[in-house]
């Protein structure tokens, strides 16, 4: 479903990404893990065609991001770390606006508005102005705008950033439920989020992929570098692979 091939991104002499490659299968949740500044957001912006890479390419549902960017955008929903919301609009008005921008109209737009209202649990705030919402509800509205056009692929940048524990649990449950129908990449530097949601993990450090696979596979890669005896936690794995 997603095939990333040797993506590199340079800002002058600085390399934000260096020949990053990985794949994500249909129905899979992939956690993009790394410290702040590792290159996670740059990778996501390239996959969503916000940035043009220095080298390499990727396909999203078979569409090349360089030669077929419009088709790639249509098949992808994107929630950046700061959700693209208009504070003075009501939730229902905002989602109608986004749906129309995505080419929806009439009965289809109404169906998708109803679907995201239920899926993202927005009924309680449906007629509220966005500036009145809590951080958790704003994140749900941001996720709803990424889902309004029923994309096959979801790309979520730090989807639980700044949320309280109950809000985090709600977003986790929603994302895992969506994976039954969609392919998902989410980025984070919070190890617990990866353990709770990801089927596979890609660890990026200083712009390079240092390891990828299921947690059990990463444990095998980290074992020779770790002094700890017994099973390794994801934190143990992360430390061993990055030091």
Please characterize this protein's 3D structure:
This protein is α/β, with parallel strands linked by helices and 243 residues long. It folds into 2 domains: 2-75 and 153-242, P-loop containing nucleotide triphosphate hydrolases (Rossmann fold, 3-Layer(aba) Sandwich); 83-150, no CATH class. The protein has helices spanning 40-47, 69-74, 91-101, 106-119, 135-147, 165-178, 191-197, 215-222, 234-242; strands at 2-11, 14-24, 29-33, 55-60, 63-64, 76-79, 153-157, 183-188, 200-205, 208-213. α3 (91-101) crosses α4 (106-119) and α8 (215-222) crosses α9. The model has no long low-confidence stretch (mean pLDDT 92).
Short description:
With about 240 residues, this protein is an alpha/beta fold. The protein has nine helices and ten strands. It folds into two domains: about 160 residues, P-loop containing nucleotide triphosphate hydrolases (Rossmann fold, 3-Layer(aba) Sandwich); about 70 residues, no CATH class.
């Amino acid at each position: 479903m997603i095939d990333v091939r040797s993506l590199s991104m340079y800002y002058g002499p600085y390399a934000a990404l260096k020949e990053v490659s990985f794949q994500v299968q249909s129905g899979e949740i992939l956690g993009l893990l790394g410290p702040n500044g590792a290159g996670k957001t740059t990778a996501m912006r390239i996959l969503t065609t916000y940035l043009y890479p220095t080298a390499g390419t990727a396909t999203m549902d078979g569409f090349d991001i360089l030669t077929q960017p419009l088709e790639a955008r249509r098949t992808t929903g994107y929630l950046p770390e700061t959700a693209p919301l208009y504070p003075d609009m009501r939730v229902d008005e905002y989602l109608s606006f986004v749906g129309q921008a995505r080419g929806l109209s009439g009965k289809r737009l109404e169906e998708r508005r109803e679907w995201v209202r239920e899926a993202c649990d927005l009924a309680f705030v449906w007629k509220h102005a966005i500036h009145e919402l809590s951080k958790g509800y704003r994140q749900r509205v941001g996720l709803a705008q990424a889902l309004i056009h029923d994309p096959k692929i979801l790309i979520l940048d730090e989807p639980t950033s700044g949320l309280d524990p109950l809000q985090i649990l709600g977003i986790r449950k929603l994302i895992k439920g969506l994976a039954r129908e969609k392919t998902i990449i989410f980025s984070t530097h919070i190890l617990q989020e990866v353990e709770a949601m990801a089927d596979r993990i890609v660890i990026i450090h200083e712009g390079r992929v240092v390891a990828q696979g299921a947690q059990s596979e990463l444990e095998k890669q980290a074992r020779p570098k770790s002094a700890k005896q017994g099973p390794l936690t994801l934190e143990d794995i992360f430390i061993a692979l990055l030091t």
